[in-house]
Amino acid sequence: MANTILVGAQWGDEGKGKIIDFLTEKADVVVRSQGGNNAGHTVIAGDKKYVLHLIPSGILRPGKACVIGNGVVLDPVAVVAEIEGVRAAKIKVGKNLLISDCAHLVLPYHRLLDEARELAKGKGKIGTTKRGIGPAYADKASRTGLRMGDLMQPELFSKKLALRIKENNAVLKAFGAKPVSFKKVNEEYLAAGEVLRPFVCNTVVYLHEALKAGKELLFEGAQGTFLDIDHGTYPYVTSSNTTAGGAATGSGVPPHRIDRVLGVMKAYTTRVGEGPFPTENDQISDMLHAMGREFGATTGRARRCGWFDAVATHFATMVNGIDDVAITNLDGLDTVDVIKVCVGYKSGRKKIDVPPSDFLQLAECEPVYIELPGWLTPTSGARKFEDLPPNAQAYALKLAELTGGRLAIVSVGAHRDQTILL
Ligand code: GDP
Ligand code: IMO
Ligand code: MG
Questions:
Q1: Which residues of 358-383 are buried (b: 16+ CB within 10 A; e: fewer)?
Q2: Which pLDDT tens digit goes with each residue over 20-68?
Q3: Cβ–ligand 2 contact at 93 (below 6 Å)
Q4: Phi and psi based region of residue 292 (left: phi greater than 0; alpha: psi -120 to 50; beta: remaining)
Q5: Cα dist. 149→103, 240, 254 in Å?
Q6: Under the phi-then-psi rule, with left for phi > 0, alpha for psi from -120 to 50, and beta for the rest, what region is 78?
Q7: Residue nearest to atom 28 of ligand 1 (CA)
Q8: Which of 44, 129, 320, 338 is exposed most, by the fewest CB atoms within 10 A?
Q9: How do residues 194-208 score in pLDDT, each as one tens digit?
């Protein structure tokens, strides 16, 4: 399968978890390299549904190693709860999970600050998941963060934590938020640290050895291209590099050891939280929500929905170097008569084919659509590309062509067998 980076080509929730789980059958190691438990990756295996936040979706396949790399920010208490949840479903979590000692910790004051800043922004809020992701990455960049390696040294951790809590409580006070208790956090985190101790190691060395042994790596992207801190719709983004480059820095695997980039995208577009979304469409939202679809896997919020935006996915190909395209949720459009696809934006009098980097300018863009005929036939039973109605085949091929990659996977349902490999 070669070493592959899987990225979301839209605004997150593209169905990455499902595709990762499918591809893990052929991979040896699955690596998360950025984000935290803001992610929610849904995998249906057998008759069970799993929603994974920090543990790579590869954990559901026996014999595969899962790495949480240095670029991830993790809340140790949340990881312990997630491990317990996975184990309760009789999935083995032991030597198959490795956590980088350089991964930064999300602490309770990060969550409180995330919430306080959102409140203070009022109408201008980002609509974060309130998992403390932004403040945790801010501490990392400010060089005031605490890492897994610190947590493995209890005395040192407690000393550093005391100082961090003192400073952050002063900031929380300024926001009118409640301070955190050193004693409580210290106890909870040290206890979680002891549970996680067997998993913590230098994952760069582990991945290097895996590469030397000829093992195949699959990088599990979290969020999506337009939530990238550099390339997304700033400031309505998350705080990490969700695009392909982030996989190298967030894992310590050199870029030239990566062979291919797979871009995952829905057959339409969704977005959770605030920020510009040119192809947003109430009719599509209402239709998908009435089908019980498109509610967030992490926060349960209804996702905003709209037509497929090929201006966005084409830009995603530029930034990520997408070679192959996986289109998910094709079945979501089974009942739509005429399907619109955005192939350009009108910005004032100009027609443009690249999303403006300024979010206000993007918000003012008018989509230019082409119309494609729907297929008005259920597709969820298709197992081969030829099983799909001709209009559905043509639609999927058109999206890949506009995106600029080779159509490699079409998904017509949440289950493993509802995946068509081309
Ligand atoms: P992720 O964050 O990219 O892993 O995506 P999420 O799990 O947050 O959201 C994707 C949703 O679509 C989940 O509910 C999946 O079970 C579901 N899903 C993925 N692919 C398909 C598909 O082809 N058809 C249908 N009906 N559901 C899908
Ligand atoms: P997966 O991996 C969709 C969005 C939030 C908000 C913005 C910033 O499941 O695709 P944050 O909590 O990260 O500071 O929030 O990013 N967001 C996601 N949207 N899927 C995700 O992850 C997301 N993770 C964050 O809704 O708009
Ligand atoms: Mg998700």
A1: ebeebeebebbbeebebbeeebeebe
A2: 999 999 999 999 999 999 999 999 998 899 999 999 999 999 999 999 9
A3: no
A4: left
A5: 8, 20, 22
A6: alpha
A7: 414
A8: 338
A9: 999 999 999 999 999
